Amino acid sequence: MKNKLYPGIFACLVLLAAFLIRQTEKSNVLPKRSAASIGALKCTVARFMLEPVDSSRQIAPLFENLGTHSMPVYNAPPRAQAFFDQGLRLTYAFNHAEGHRSFMEAARLAPATAMAYWGQAYDLGPNINDPAPDPERKTRAWEALEKANLHAPQASDLERDLIRALNARYSPDTLVETSLLNSAYMDAMREVALRHPDHPDVLTLYAASIMNTMPWSYWDMDGKPAPNTLAAKAALEKAIQLQPDHPGAHHYYIHLMELPDPDRAVSSAESLEGLMPAAGHIVHMPSHIYIRVGRYQDAVRVNKLAILADEDYISQCYSQGIYPLGYYPHNIHFLWSAASLIGESVTAIDAAKKTAEKVPVGQMGQLHFLQDFASTPLLAYTRFGKWNDILTFPAPGPGNLHLSLMRHYARGIAFIRKGNAKEAREELEAIDALIREPELAEIVATANNSSDRIAGVARAVVAGELAALEGDYEQAVAHLEQAVALEDDLTYTEPSAWHIPPRQNLGAVLMLAGDFDRAEAVYRSDLEKLRQNGWSLYGLTQALEAQGKKEAARAIQREFDSVWQSADLTISRSVL
Which fold has domain 11-347? Predict the structure, then answer.
């Protein structure tokens, strides 16, 4: 089992606050779109979070197709309640900037509604994908919280409890450690949950407060829970029992359970589908479970829908900042990964190219995860044997070490497949030169995995495949076993931090070496990690046939045929 969950969908998202682009306002009225659309007005999502807004006019749109989840709040007339509910739904969908704006509109419509300010303060705080708010955000959060405190005497008991708890999360002193405040807030929310044990939103917010104290480190490398993880799990399970269509509870439960026990979250994945069809991240979220349990077609399907939803939102709202730079490309990235595992090369390559197209090239040196996105076409070409496309891929600009690394890796494999050992060795030497660069260890482009760790896997794979080309199967196996060990040690993320499981390379080389029983074991091991992936099912079929295990081979062949039914290519081994 890999050592732990990564700290956020993109570990570098915390850097994005420095790059939020201030946008001019667009048209106030947008046409109604399809059933998965958001009809919106004034859809900028960066400027208003930290700057004064004109409260004499409508601040936020009412979106369509964000579901029906509601948390009635005191002193809110119907339209203000609608904006509060929308803010909460968007918060549960991790579109905190847009949620914040909805809470601002609720406060504009009903200035005495304390929970409208609670929502603003909540969304300005840390979350599991953005754990380090800057001082300006902390100041704005405190200002919003003071307004919530001002109106709290007119709120309900539940609302006063939530506002009182949020006071533990913030301080007027922006130098107070966020981790200390997170722990204090978790303790305060525990008390709120004890006082309101049957309120699904309270239970969900309590679980979120726990998870925020340890973003993506909920389980250790042996699958044992971190302190308080089981309390979060119990709270979310109870919230789901009380309200089976709660989008926030299902969302957090998927993230909590995707690594150690994804089967427990299948019901949440299935339930989340359709709850908020215009919220791309919510539409995407079931794929975190589907890809873990071998339901790759479902992962492809929901990410296609998520991409459409986010494109509709971004194009209408002229969105900038974290959402279009991180969350939206994540859907496309995920589509590439899922389609690759079932042989849909056209879909996968198109998604890979589109992922790269979303990268603002000038920011790759600062926002390292963008280099991972930019390298996706190289990885797709490697998966599907597009050697000429790899060799004509342009060299990146200076300073983009991670992208350079992946280009040298892909070129090394391309030269090996073309039988050019000399050129392949030159690419291996280029990888070695990059590994010697101290800066490589400072780059975190692939979730929480520094690029020197990724380079270790890349080097071992190229070295192993080169040794196999030269007929030295003993050395090839040794290198590829090292690649397997290094890949196993990478921090968990989806899509996987390494794009082609090295066991597939190792199994293919073992087949060449005639070591069929070991190849069988390797493929079975890979299928434990990536259930029902077509590449290892095919390799396993070959290994069984080579040993004369005809009946077992036929059974696996049937599984492969089912998985590969939408594929647009035929394969003859587990790696091309």
Answer: 1.25.40
